[in-house]
């Protein structure tokens, strides 16, 4: 019996049922087949590829051509999982530029959702995209494309003012039409509050156990970035005999609530 492909409506229904969403980054067809076959719900073609595949120190050098290429590779192998693709640095500097580049990710790359970083300054862009039928995943908290402005990869929302700004931006992004949200590196209590408040699914990375789902960089959860993996990640391959078993273990841990544990929730 065939399984219906996952859509943004599927993820919204999972949130409504209280069923955790398991997501991983993915950059090529071979991993896409494996992740999809094991039951990953959402494959994020992240601009993190600039760091884990290309060897850059940040995501800033990643281009639209890079993103289209890798998104197309993932989409060709997709059977069930939702494919979300990042708009890279400055690819959405204006609403018109965002519209043109989102069209490339969907038409050339086969993405079903595009993701962009930022809060209030991006509201007009999100509205413009959604008005044209393009599903958007917002990204708040730590914004890796802004690493040069913020001075490093640091947890966000730890003081009252910044936490309030993230709360405000989360609601505003939902009101602007975003279908999903990624919260990165924010305190668990703040992420839990936002997840309860919003009607759209909230996917956490370094944001505690109470989001509607979890996402990790696939290379981190396979222990391939030893010594450089973030504190909120876990090496699932170390205790398994194969990559497939490790991914299955991750999916099961997210579904059961066993990941992230207290040790993987710094704040």
TrEMBL record:
<dbReference type="GO" id="GO:0008168">
    <property type="term" value="F:methyltransferase activity"/>
</dbReference>
<keyword id="KW-0489">Methyltransferase</keyword>
<dbReference type="GO" id="GO:0003864">
    <property type="term" value="F:3-methyl-2-oxobutanoate hydroxymethyltransferase activity"/>
</dbReference>
<comment type="function">
    <text>Catalyzes the reversible reaction in which hydroxymethyl group from 5,10-methylenetetrahydrofolate is transferred onto alpha-ketoisovalerate to form ketopantoate.</text>
</comment>
<keyword id="KW-0566">Pantothenate biosynthesis</keyword>
<feature type="binding site">
    <location>
        <position position="47"/>
    </location>
    <ligand>
        <name>Mg(2+)</name>
    </ligand>
</feature>
<feature type="binding site">
    <location>
        <position position="86"/>
    </location>
    <ligand>
        <name>Mg(2+)</name>
    </ligand>
</feature>
<dbReference type="InterPro" id="IPR003700">
    <property type="entry name" value="Pantoate_hydroxy_MeTrfase"/>
</dbReference>
<dbReference type="Pfam" id="PF02548">
    <property type="entry name" value="Pantoate_transf"/>
</dbReference>
<dbReference type="InterPro" id="IPR015813">
    <property type="entry name" value="Pyrv/PenolPyrv_kinase-like_dom"/>
</dbReference>
<dbReference type="GO" id="GO:0032259">
    <property type="term" value="P:methylation"/>
</dbReference>
<feature type="active site" description="Proton acceptor">
    <location>
        <position position="184"/>
    </location>
</feature>
<dbReference type="GO" id="GO:0000287">
    <property type="term" value="F:magnesium ion binding"/>
</dbReference>
<feature type="binding site">
    <location>
        <position position="86"/>
    </location>
    <ligand>
        <name>3-methyl-2-oxobutanoate</name>
    </ligand>
</feature>
<comment type="pathway">
    <text>Cofactor biosynthesis; (R)-pantothenate biosynthesis; (R)-pantoate from 3-methyl-2-oxobutanoate: step 1/2.</text>
</comment>
<comment type="subunit">
    <text>Homodecamer; pentamer of dimers.</text>
</comment>
<dbReference type="GO" id="GO:0015940">
    <property type="term" value="P:pantothenate biosynthetic process"/>
</dbReference>
<dbReference type="InterPro" id="IPR040442">
    <property type="entry name" value="Pyrv_kinase-like_dom_sf"/>
</dbReference>
<keyword id="KW-0479">Metal-binding</keyword>
<keyword id="KW-0963">Cytoplasm</keyword>
<keyword id="KW-0808">Transferase</keyword>
<comment type="similarity">
    <text>Belongs to the PanB family.</text>
</comment>
<dbReference type="GO" id="GO:0005737">
    <property type="term" value="C:cytoplasm"/>
</dbReference>
<feature type="binding site">
    <location>
        <begin position="47"/>
        <end position="48"/>
    </location>
    <ligand>
        <name>3-methyl-2-oxobutanoate</name>
    </ligand>
</feature>
<feature type="binding site">
    <location>
        <position position="117"/>
    </location>
    <ligand>
        <name>Mg(2+)</name>
    </ligand>
</feature>
<protein>
    <recommendedName>
        <fullName>3-methyl-2-oxobutanoate hydroxymethyltransferase</fullName>
        <ecNumber>2.1.2.11</ecNumber>
    </recommendedName>
</protein>
<feature type="binding site">
    <location>
        <position position="115"/>
    </location>
    <ligand>
        <name>3-methyl-2-oxobutanoate</name>
    </ligand>
</feature>
<keyword id="KW-0460">Magnesium</keyword>
